[in-house]
Amino acid sequence: MAEEEDAGALKKTVLNELHLELGAKMVPFAGYEMPVQYPLGVLKEHLHCRASAGLFDVSHMGQVILRGPDVSAALETLVPVDVCGLPDGRQRYGFFTNEAGGIEDDLMIANRGDHLFVVVNAACKHADVARMRAALEPKGITVKLLENRALLALQGTAAEDVLAQHCPAVRDMRFMDVATLPIAGAECWVSRSGYTGEDGFEISVPNAAAMDLARALLGEEAVEPIGLGARDSLRLEGGLCLYGHDIDAQTTPIAAGLNWAIQKVRRTDGARAGGFPGSDTILAELAEPPAMKRVGLRPEGRAPMREGTEIFDLPEGGAAIGRITSGGFGPSVGGPVAMGYVPRNLSENGTALWGEVRGKRMPVTVAALPFVAAGFKR
Amino acid sequence: MKYTEEHEWLDVAGDVVTVGITAHAAEQLGDVVFVELPEEGTEVAKDDEVVVIESVKAASDILAPLDGEIVEVNAALTDEPSKVNEDPEGEAWFFKIKVSDFSPMDDYMDDAAYKDFIGD
């Protein structure tokens, strides 16, 4: 495989041994050796997660603690998100922007009382930490990338019942709540959230307790381990963006359709309008949307349209009008699904377009996201 | 049975060769979700791309192992691509080719050589 890096240089999560024991196929991902699939295979792992529960090792992601005076206001200088208004015990989705209004990374921001806890993408974590240090340390904020905690995600319709066996209090949590809870004898930082479109939890656990917790959860009948392959098809069906693919430094949040993540208070005429990188561009785009828009796309037939597939508004001739940024087979949909960017005037659901696969233009229809109804417990 | 370095198996019966992919290849591909077959009657040359397979991971091709004419395709795979994972060396053959030049056959591996090739 062309993308493989030098295996010797790869980092391992604290659950590496468990993945190998479970028969995982390991691949390099964002500098880590990670499980792409287990013996069950991508398709069955995906279906199992939606129907029951799946356990993901996402310890490669960056867990960062921000602490200091007016930390929420300080973080607001980097993200177009209402952080000051985020209540204690709640979490919110956000993104770091650049001066051009593009997205540098997306992240989760949790208010854990006397500090903020943010989770960032593995591939961007060192850049994110550098960005936060540069902007926040002068304001007296400490930025600490945690190396002593693992991160597990338990996702799926049975996730609550499974986790409640070990910690009944999780039943009281709603979507995007965060809490400190004892699970399997360890102090866990739990959020009711995930990256599958299903109900579920993300659990930050001390490294020393991570193996026991993972084994305890996998010991439940309902739980199967899920690799990166199914993680990708689950999030794609869930209409969730993958950084570096559906969103990147050249894509604005408005083109990406992430307007909902920019609360009113940070918009023009809001009490704390602007004040983040690229705010001029982003606020202007909220008033007058950019030419391109991220949409869901359903290819006709069975052939998947993958990332990079060019989109046309004619069955033959003419130039490409758009491009697929994530695409593959949706096991729960039972057919190919994709996301991509098309001109705003061709972005209405039901619009008939064509994607060029192996030199042939195949019909594809603009479709509502998510492809599979979200199972969040709001 | 003969094997190619592209992980195809070739079952020879007279001048007709049945072509499929090995269990090793099917496992490497992962769950197959789409198969595009050639039309029966197509004349093909060795190394022409004749079949497209899409798995949950990626697209790949099956190359014609020999010159000849496609005389039969396994249309059942179009509706049930998962058969490729279930029975790659049996029910899930892809096409039959009426061979016009058998000479490349000498370069293909036998069972033992293929096992060696995949490090089994």
UniProtKB/TrEMBL annotation, chain B:
The organism's taxonomic lineage, starting at the top: Bacteria, Pseudomonadati, Pseudomonadota, Alphaproteobacteria, Rhodobacterales
Identify its protein family. Answer: Belongs to the GcvH family.
Q: Which residues form the Lipoyl-binding domain?
A: 16-98
> What cofactor does this protein call for?
(R)-lipoate
Which UniProt keyword terms apply here? Answer: Lipoyl
Q: Which InterPro entries match?
A: 2-oxoA_DH_lipoyl-BS (IPR003016), Biotin_lipoyl (IPR000089), GCV_H (IPR002930), GCV_H/Fam206 (IPR033753), GCV_H_sub (IPR017453), Single_hybrid_motif (IPR011053)
Pfam families registered for this protein in UniProt: GCV_H
- State the gene name recorded for this protein: gcvH
**What are the N6-lipoyllysine sites (modified residues) in this protein?**
57
How it assembles, according to the record, is: The glycine cleavage system is composed of four proteins: P, T, L and H.
This protein is called Glycine cleavage system H protein
Q: Looking at the keywords, is Glycoprotein present?
A: no
Q: What does the entry's cofactor note say about binding and number?
A: Binds 1 lipoyl cofactor covalently.
Function of the protein: The glycine cleavage system catalyzes the degradation of glycine. The H protein shuttles the methylamine group of glycine from the P protein to the T protein.
